[in-house]
Amino acid sequence: TSPIAWLRTRFYYLLIRLYFDQEFSVEEFTRGAKQAFCVVSKLLSQRKLDLLDELVSAEVLQVLKEKISLLPDSHRDALAADIDAIMYTTEGDVRIYYDDDGRKFVSILMRFWYLNGANLPDEVPGETKVFQIVFGDESTKEKRHLLTANYEFQREFTEGAKPDWTITRIEHPRLLE
């Protein structure tokens, strides 16, 4: 991340704490975002979209239902991320905005890099083979892929609104397109 982008996100986090949620913590949000990413990615890979109602916006869920049904099994398997397999997480963009009715929103885009052992073809563009682990002899190799995902979390801070974060964008480049 560039220093300017880093400063910008820290400034927005300060605004969130000052004007919306005095208890807001970047570390706590990131921890929760990782957990949500793992839960949602596993449910996507298992095609259990009905369990995503409370976590994902209705618009995103509708798009996911169409895309998931068309995915080959190898790509669907590659969507799943274990919390221990997340190699790196960073914020992509933080926005504070108001709609025409005066409702207040905060959205935070999180980027995840995770290892996955799905049986992806070597010609999958955009994914990176990180390494192969050899257990025992040369005939038992385990291939891991470093994959990326972008999840955008949104919360309404209008008085009386539910204090829940909702996922409003899900991107798994080259897998879920």
TrEMBL record:
GO BP, sorted A to Z: protein insertion into mitochondrial inner membrane from matrix
Taxonomy, superkingdom: Eukaryota
Record-level Gene Ontology MF annotations: ribosome binding
GO CC annotations, alphabetized: mitochondrial inner membrane
This protein's name: MAIP1 protein
Protein source organism: Rynchops niger
Taxon lineage: Eukaryota, Metazoa, Chordata, Craniata, Vertebrata
